Amino acid sequence: MSIRVGKAAPDFAAQAYWRGEIKEVRLSDYRGKWVLIFFYPADFTFV
Amino acid sequence: MAAVAVKYPAFQELGVEVLAVSVDDVATHKDWQEKELSKMVKGGALYPMISDEGGKIGTLYGVYDEEKKVDLRGRFLIDPDGVVQSAEIVSAPVGRDVSEVLRQVRAFQHHRKTGELMPCGWQPGKPTLPPEKESSNLSGKVWETWRPRNAF
């Protein structure tokens, strides 16, 4: 696992669906804000 | 997902940006939002639903299951400096607790603002401990200001 608390969060950029649009999301664009990233296995499941 | 969508206003009030990530493509995210999430929760998921095709992001965060080709239930709280402050990974059969995430956000934000230390089970209004540099003389005296019942 390449991640640890107290260490920098790995940056990434990817396509996202957001409020009717497709846009690119880059984690480093959120610098200065608290961010909650949550992963889940699949759409159309109850998670 | 639906539970986070319900609590999204609480995250917004705390100034927390939410990013949901799965290996589904954006078309499937759109479908799920339109056909189901928006019917379960008013507005559905109002935060970005990221497509992690190939599990690249999941691999970076140590949550990608290469056999099942999905991202496991990982949750990471990142502070305004881009530093991971809290991480949780839960295996498939059991769901998570959004209220615990909100509790941790409030505790980390309180600590960041005041330097105070946030004991076990802290909730707003419960006692805290003094900042690290003052708490060295707390050794053996925590019982004077904090009791285990405060954890519940």
Summarize the structure.
In chain A, 0% of the residues lie in helices and 38% in strands. Chain A has 47 residues and is mostly beta strands.
Summarize the structure in words.
The complex is a heterodimer of chains A (47) and B (152). By secondary structure, chain A is mainly beta. Chain A is built from no helices and 3 strands. In chain A, 0% of the residues lie in helices and 38% in strands. Chain A has a two-stranded antiparallel sheet with strand order 1-2. Chain A is extended. The mean pLDDT of chain A is 93. Chain B has 152 residues and is α+β, with helices and mostly antiparallel strands. Helix content of chain B is 38%, strand content 18%. Chain B contains 6 helices and 6 strands, in the order αβαβαββββααα. In chain B, strands 1-2 form a two-stranded parallel sheet. The two termini of chain B are 27 Å apart. The mean pLDDT of chain B is 93. Classes of the chains: A mainly beta (47), B alpha+beta (152). At the A-B interface, strand 1, strand 2 and strand 3 of A face helix 1, strand 1, helix 2, strand 2 and helix 3 of B. Strand 3 of chain A pairs antiparallel with strand 5 (73-78) of chain B.
Sheet with the most strands, sense and barrel status of chain B: 2 strands, parallel
Number of strands of chain A: 3
Unreliable stretches of chain B: none
Biggest sheet: strand arrangement of chain B: 1-2
Name of the CATH class of the largest domain in chain B: Alpha Beta
Note the main attributes of this structure.
heterodimer, A: 47 residues, mainly beta, two-stranded antiparallel ribbon, extended, B: alpha+beta, Glutaredoxin
List the helices and strands and how they pair.
The complex is a heterodimer of chains A (about 45) and B (about 150).
Chain A lengths: L12 E6 L2 E6 L7 E6 L8
Antiparallel strand pairs in A: 1-2
Chain B lengths: L1 H12 L2 E7 L3 H15 L8 E3 L4 H5 L3 E2 L4 E2 L1 E6 L5 E7 L7 H17 L17 H4 L6 H4 L7
Parallel strand pairs in B: 1-2
Antiparallel strand pairs in B: 3-4, 5-6
